[in-house]
Amino acid sequence: MPQHRELCLVTPLSLFFILFSLNVATAIAGDQNPFSPKGYLTRYWNKEVRNDAVGPSFLLSKASPLSAVQSASFAKLASENALQTKLPEFCSAAKLLCFPDLGESLEKHVKDASFTGYSGRNFTNYGTDRLAGADSFKNYSLGENLPVDSFRRYSRDSVDHKDKFNNYAADGNVIDQSFNSYAAGATSGTGDFKRYADSTNVPNLRFISYSDDSDGRAQSFTGYSENANAGQQSFTSYAKHGNGAPNEFTGYGTSSNVAGSDFTGYSESGNGANDTFTNYGNDENNPTERFKSYGDGGNAGSEKFSNYRDKANVGESSFQSYGKNSNSKKVNFVNYGKSFNNGSESFTGYGEGSLGGSVGFKIYGFNNTFKDYKDKNAAKFTEYAADEKTSLASASGSLAKRWVEPGKFFRESMLKKGAVMPFPDIKDKMPERSFLPRTISSKLPFATAKLSELKRIFHAEDNSTMEKIIADALQECERAPSKGETKRCVGSAEDMIDFATSVLGRNVVVRTTDNVSGAKGDIVVGSVKGINGGKVTQSVSCHQSLFPYLLYYCHSVPKVRVYEADLLDPTSKAKINHGVAICHLDTSAWSPTHGSFAALGSGPGRIEVCHWIFQNDLTWTIAD
Questions:
Q1: CB neighbour burial string for 45-57, b if at least 16 within 10 angstroms, e if fewer
Q2: Whole-number Å distance between alpha carbons of 204 and 220
Q3: Considering just the CA atoms, what is the radius of gyration of the chain in Å?
Q4: What's the pTM?
């Protein structure tokens, strides 16, 4: 009898564990594993959001694809500061942005080579001491996503070696190209870069100690980085101590968007340098060009800037210690800085300590600063517009809109049923990534002070694209908020929910535009609904930042009205999209050079400005 009672007590408990194990196994085998990051996010939404709204599929789709076991394993590595030891596996499984590590160098070659269709290769020391011959890189890394190429010490100490980079890395996405010590010490020969990095997205191109100590080697950059988006090109110690080396930049950065160029120590202490910048930076939007110690200590050189930054929109150029301590240097600026919307140029210590030489400014733009400029009276300023009161933008409306896509900004009155309006390209151009589970992201450093640790984790070398991506994102996230702004960068969906609910309360809804249909064409506005009854409200907008894992910059946006609208095909009148638009009612703190004012006219605080929510951007509001 006692034995029978003992059996009865054990059986229900055993049955419970058996059934629990079966349920867990079934859940894991199915699509909705409750212990996976996606399963956890669903539960978190249901717990934190106090309404009947189901967790939106577009937010859930951004959750980490890691399995429960993978998530636990990588979280353990993160806590042990060992995630970098499994970075390729981690990046692949978690769907992150990571650059591949370069393989062994293709160091030796004895004959001419044509590298057609290659990508992601290491050409360190390639062509060193090469006598004559030619190497051709045609259609190299064409259309690649995240290509990484290294040409470190390429053609170093070569004699009469010709290199051709035609259509190199065109149409690439987040490209990383390094030309460190390229052609250093080379004698004669040529380097020809045609249509290099054309139409790329976020390029990072580095020419460090390029052509240093070379003798009579010519470098030509034709169509370099044209039509690029938000990239950075750096020429550090380019042609330093060079002798009689002509360098030509034709069509450099033309029609690029928010591009940056650094020429540090370019042609420093060069002898008889001959540099030509033709159509440099034309039609660019908000470019930044810095020439620091350019031509410093040079002898009998010649620099010519023709149509430099012509018709650019705002932007900034800085010439610091340009031509300093040079001897008989000739510099000519023709059609320099005739931007349609005022930018700024700064000449600090320009020509300081130089002997002889001449400087000419013909049809030079306005809004410029000449600080400590050597012998202003000796410089020739022809048709110099420094004192002009008017902007070219006011005289050329169509040109002023060159960098503002039709439909990107619009007035609130345009958002009504039956209206025909252009719909901008709202496609997300960033590499696809996923959030990290909070169990992993919380264990990773996220601060500029911890940049070295992040570089170690994500295998980011000094001056690499990945280092810049990480540093730029950290800088933006650590920036002090604007007046009235509350902001936070979030690397997990749970963190985004927490921030949105901390600002708006827990009765919230998150929205985005359904798809990209209708982009770059006209649409007809269908039915329109004002969120919160069309009343002035507050929202939290979240925009992607480029980072190894999915990172959003979220901030509160006061005094807005948010709308939903069906978007119709202008011919068939069939519904093709469902758009979400936000109208900013208070623009008084916006910059006068903001693209919306170029597109719509007026200025800060005088009009409201509306725009669509782009693909993969989000806006949160209080639920109706």
A1: beeebeeeeebee
A2: 19
A3: 29
A4: 0.69
